[in-house]
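Sync notes, pocket subgroup
Present: LS, DG
LS reminded everyone that the earlier model was apo-only. Rerun requested with uracil included. Inputs:
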Amino acid sequence: MNIIDIINKTKHGKELNDAEIEALVRGFTNGEIPDYQMSAWLMAVCLNGLTDDETAILTYAMRDTGKVMDLSCIGGTTIDKHSTGGVGDKTSLIIGPIAAACGVYVPKMSGRGLGHTGGTIDKLESINGYNTQLALDKFLEVVSETGFSIISQSEMLCPADKLIYSLRNATGTVDSIPLICSSIMSKKLAMNCDCILLDVKYGSGAFMKTYEDACRLGELMERTGKAVGKKCRAIVTDMNIPLGKNIGNALEVREAVDVLSGQCRGSLYDLCIGLSADMLELAGKGTNADCIRMAENAIASGKALSILERTIELHGGDSRICRDTSLLPQPRYSYNVRAAHNMKIISINSEEIGMTSLLLGAGRISKEDKIDMSAGIVMNCECGQIVGEGETIMTLCSSVCSDFTESARRALNAVKFVKIL
Ligand code: URA
């Protein structure tokens, strides 16, 4: 198999066969194909796309470069949930415990944040002591006991994705629907749950900027999962505005606990109930209406919060945060951004809010950057809300940055409003 022939075929929009795709993935993963040739092929994919069949074969070839989990020791239906990521997205911390409280098992591997988007593993590491790197057998023990666990991506699963993803990051080849599909689905298929719920985000804070592209990605991922016998559903949700009120690692864990303890209603609560119900329905637990009732009851009864508490404990973390969120990292400095006049909020750009949070220390620009777990933003306003002069629109938090001049300017820039006279 000649790699230059493979690059040329994709460059000219000709379909690759299974053997060619498998040789490409195998050759790159074992180091026989150098970065520069793989980069050329990735760019050809960005420019010309792949057929659905090519995307599926690429996904399965990537999955097969590592271990495929054996979940047979878990005595029930397993379900994985994936969000394509965004700003303030703490839904995994909420819907995993809800689904587990309703009798399904949620073994989940997650990633770290990069750029303006957050990552679930960073959020969990804001809990003192929480070990995100449990050995796989211990991880499965936790899932069997509580129904839910999240660890960071294992090196043993999908090594091809790790290598290809870092090359894509460095070569401007991230934003390709077939490449995103194969990256996400290879990891989901290696995790090997019975069911997969895919929450595909669109809007300013998401990878997919338009609703149409998010639908295309969702449909492709759904087909790729179903073709190998998984129950798979993709839903498309809005990431034009940040999700919930809190952005930043410890702040988001606090909000997740507030939702699970029934203290926080609103759009985040509604989204989490909807997503949990979709997971339960996919797992065969009843009609959507039944599943919504079950999810609401999991919060109202306190069962979902107890599951999060026990899971944190089994991971070595300080589970007292589930009853007292002041035990989470607290910021040394804070600053209230106030309205200069009476105004009506029209929109809040989530990418800009994500970038401001990063500036405050909550995220990383390069993989090696250290995170300030206490940093982030608390939004005190919503779209459509009328805010009076001098009222706080949002609070900026940080332990590493005490000068808020630039972050306040950027945060205000993210808010579109009309003056009310
Ligand atoms: N998340 C992934 O895991 N891979 C992508 O390519 C994009 C988002």
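DG: The radius of gyration is 22 Å.
LS: Residues 46 and 176 are 5 Å apart (CA to CA).
Action: DG to write up.
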